[in-house]
Amino acid sequence: MFLDAIKKAHPDLTVISSGASFDPVGDKENAGFDIPAPGIGDYHPYREPNALVEEFNLFDNNKYGHIIGEVASTHPNGGTGWSGNLMPYPWWISGVGEAVALCGYERNADRIPGTFYAPILKNENRWQWSITMIQFAADSAMTTRSTSWYVWSLFAGHPMTHTLPATSNFDPLYYVAGKNEDKGTLIWKGAAYNTTKGADVPVSLSFKGVKPGAQAELTLLTNKEKDPFAFNDPHKGNNVVDTKKTVLKADGKGAFNFKLPNLSVAVLETLKKGKPYSS
Asked: What topology is assigned to 2-156 in CATH?
């Protein structure tokens, strides 16, 4: 009744229903809710990094639309779960797991119009939730961008207007390809998660219409400390995230070739007339 009344008065609005924490795409009988079209749901996955990776294809080939209203890695892999404590701050492998999830959501952008990290801010003097994107206190020197901030900022800085089909397999490399018609660029976003024996993952990336010698900017995020549990600590003022930008040229077949280290996150965007875009 509410959906019918809202759509009649405001047909341009999207009606979002109360969300699910588990099984947002199962059968109506099992999913825990019944959302009549064209309304969409609101999914809130707080997970271990491994669990976010396991949900990479959760929204593939299903009819349910959702926003991901809240999402974050909160507990270590193999930890005590919700009966235990949250991690004190976002840690490196948590951000890589979130990057994998973001790739999965963006691959299904026709049914997932938005994704949101939560919570965003933590006052170091008093808080209810330790995992947050940015930490702060009265002393401005305590303001800290978490490992997750670098991942989400990178992905948000390279928006796609359309996704493109991809033909390679996933695991341990997870990715999404697309284009930004407003800028006239092609974009690839990916993450390498738990590769075999920690080996680098070779990538040979081809876009239709890209000619030999074309240029693209690759932004690579890695962990300076080589420790999956490393985090940016506002009490230390450290930053464990290494950000490296490289301009690549397409080879004789029009492919961009590079390697992703284990537990790394990357975005490649083609350069229009040789000029990089800020992110």
From this structure: TIM Barrel (3.20.20)
